[in-house]
Amino acid sequence: MPSLISRWSSASCGRQRRSTRPCLPWRWPFREIAATLDEISGGRFILGLGAGWHQPEYDAFGYPFDHLASRFEEALQVIVPLLRQGQVDFQGHYYQVRNCVLRPRGPSPLGPPIWIGAGSPRLLHLAARYADGWKTAWHSDTAAVKERYEQFKEVCAAVGRDPTLIALTAGIRVRLLSSGEDTRAAPVLSGSAEDTAGRLQSFAEVGVTHLIVALEPKGLVGIEQFARILELLHQ
């Protein structure tokens, strides 16, 4: 069964891992934040990374919006060895790191797992090379996930990586309907709690190990309504 979390607020519980997914250009890649979160979470932290795409978010804070894929590739060449080996020395066009050492290390021997959200051919290659988990989004059925995963497995073969060593994760949108509401009007995964739980379970059957759920309605109301679906999934 996939572990389930909301995109906006955690809807999972207990000792399951937590994840965050910043766009890399928003932060310098050699910051020790990920190792710190790995420490305070007791090794349950997942570092989710993406190149970004929504320009207004960059413009609002003055972040550069050019060459996103190139910046992402260089940042990964800093982050991956720094978290996995504890040190890095890198000279690139956008980032330069000289004799950088990460001390003390967090509780995860190779650093927190790195999950990459990627869809374009270039970013898929980067995910195949560097990621511990690959995220595809946003979907309302398993057919789209299966199609995208086949493409990703071809990329893994091209770079010499075993896709079974990379966790398959998916982002989905779930609309929680009120009694009597027409499910045909919803362009996302929707229905009764029982129906929604069954459709979520079907993602595990195609290999998805982790679902990132964007809820409608958002906020506390959506999370409280989603609790019933979680109960059904854990039965």
Which structural category do the helix and sheet elements fall into?
alpha/beta
Count of β-strands: 10
Terminal CA distance reads 11 Å
Mean pLDDT: 84
Count the helices. How many?
Answer: 7
| Rg from alpha-carbon coordinates | 19 Å
Write the layout of secondary structure elements.
Blueprint: E1 3-6, E2 18-20, H1 33-40, E3 45-49, H2 55-61, H3 68-85, E4 87-91, E5 96-101, E6 114-117, H4 121-130, E7 133-139, H5 142-159, E8 167-176, E9 189-191, H6 193-205, E10 210-216, H7 220-233
Helix pairs in contact: 3-4, 4-5, 6-7
Describe the structure using short key phrases:
235 residues, alpha/beta, 10 strands, disordered N terminus
Description of the molecule:
The protein has 235 residues and is an alpha/beta fold. The protein has two domains: 1-17 and 113-235, Luciferase-like domain (TIM Barrel), CATH 3.20.20; 18-112, no CATH class. The protein has helices spanning 33-40, 55-61, 68-85, 121-130, 142-159, 193-205, 220-233; strands at residues 3-6, 18-20, 45-49, 87-91, 96-101, 114-117, 133-139, 167-176, 189-191, 210-216. Strands 1, 2, 3, 6, 7, 8, 9 and 10 form an eight-stranded parallel beta sheet that branches. Strands 4-5 form a two-stranded antiparallel ribbon. Strand 4 and strand 5 (96-101) form a beta hairpin. Helix 4 packs across helix 5.
